[in-house]
Predict the structure.
Amino acid sequence: MPVAYITGATSGIGRATAERFIEEGWTVVAMARREERLQELQDAHPGSVHCFKLDVRDKAAVEHVSPRQRSVSARPTPREHAGLALGLEPAQACSLDDWDTMVDTNIKGLLYCTRAALPGMVERHSGMW
C-alpha cells in the first residue's frame, strides 16, 4: 500500500490533500502542529492515517520524525489557505516578525522536509515530490 507523508495536514490544502490520498486508498502519515486536529483526522479515518505532532520550523524535530521518504504538497495556494498567512498588510506597514514566522514555516520548513526526504528517495531510486 502506498504511503504519503503530508505536513500541515490539519487544515487547508494539507487537510484536503490528506483526505484525497485516503480516498484513493493510500496510508497517510499526517504531520501538523495542532494535536487536537490531528486526533480529529485520525478519528475520522481509523487505520488509514498515522499522526505526528510536528512544527516544520524545528529542523531537529523534522529530522527526528522524518522517515527516509516523504511526500509534501508544496504548491502555491490562495491566501486563505496558505500556511501561517501573516503580515498581509502593505509591505511598508507589516510586521517583520510575521514575515520571519512565515519564512521559517513555508520556506525553511519545506527545505527541512526536502532534506529529510531526499536520502531515501535517492537510495530507492524512486519517490514523488
